[in-house]
Design a protein that fits this description.
Layout lengths: L3 H29 L6 H8 L3 H7 L3 H24 L6 H16 L8 H8 L6 H24 L4 H22 L3 H17 L7
InterPro entries: Homeodomain-like_sf, HTH_TetR, Tet_transcr_reg_TetR-rel_C_sf, TetR_C
Protein name: TetR/AcrR family transcriptional regulator
Organism: Tsukamurella paurometabola (Corynebacterium paurometabolum)
Length: about 200
């Protein structure tokens, strides 16, 4: 007979396995892509048996969706939440830039920015994984647009597009050339977008 305490322990073990596998899947996705995730690869990366993985994630798609959810949790904790302590608008946007640069420099994911990597991989696709990836990117763009609107930008969507484009390019170049100077360049260019949105000019 299964007691409540036994059920709780099983649930806790299952939750721990889910988190472990989802994080490993998110890590692998930044290097090889979400499509490259396999149960065997995750078993090797985590030490969890294939049967143990399939107990908590019955399909490969479920693992991929969980990887996106885990990456979203990390992105919120590392990039977004610290910036929310700042005032809306320019202060918060600059804080987001700083946190994003720290997220890359800390090698939070081994292959760079999860959002950038998966957005490229899943363009023009449909299905649960593509929707999860699309929603993650949209959340980020919506946040930038809200902050540019708070700053008084004439076209918040255009300003958000430019800032996001600089960061995506910096991530791609950094991963390709292994040079953190790309992050510094993107930080400076993105800061100009923020300052222009508020009617300020660097050096004025």
């Amino acid at each position: 007979m299964t007691t409540p305490a036994t059920a709780d322990r099983r649930r806790a073990r299952g939750d721990a396995t889910r988190r472990r596998v989802a994080r490993a899947a998110a890590d692998l996705a930044t290097v090889h892509g979400l499509d490259a995730i396999t149960v065997g690869g995750l078993a090797a990366a985590t030490g969890v048996s294939k049967s143990g993985i399939l107990t908590v994630f019955p399909t490969r798609e479920a693992i991929q969706v969980a990887a996106v959810a885990e990456a979203r949790r990390v992105y919120i904790d590392v990039v977004i939440r610290p910036a929310l302590a700042m005032s809306p608008g320019a202060d918060r946007l600059h804080a987001l830039l700083d946190a994003w640069g720290g997220y890359l420099r800390a090698e939070t994911f081994p292959g760079g920015c999860f959002v950038t990597a998966t957005a490229t991989e899943y363009g023009h696709r449909t299905g649960a994984v593509a929707e999860a990836v699309r929603n993650l990117k949209r959340e980020w763009l919506d946040l930038l647009e809200r902050e540019f609107a708070a700053e008084g930008a004439a076209d918040p969507a255009a300003a958000a597009f430019r800032l996001d484009a600089y960061l995506a390019a910096a991530n791609t170049r950094r991963e390709l050339f292994g040079d953190d100077a790309e992050l510094d360049r993107a930080r400076a260019l993105a800061a100009e977008v923020i300052d222009a949105a508020g009617g300020r000019h660097i050096g004025a």
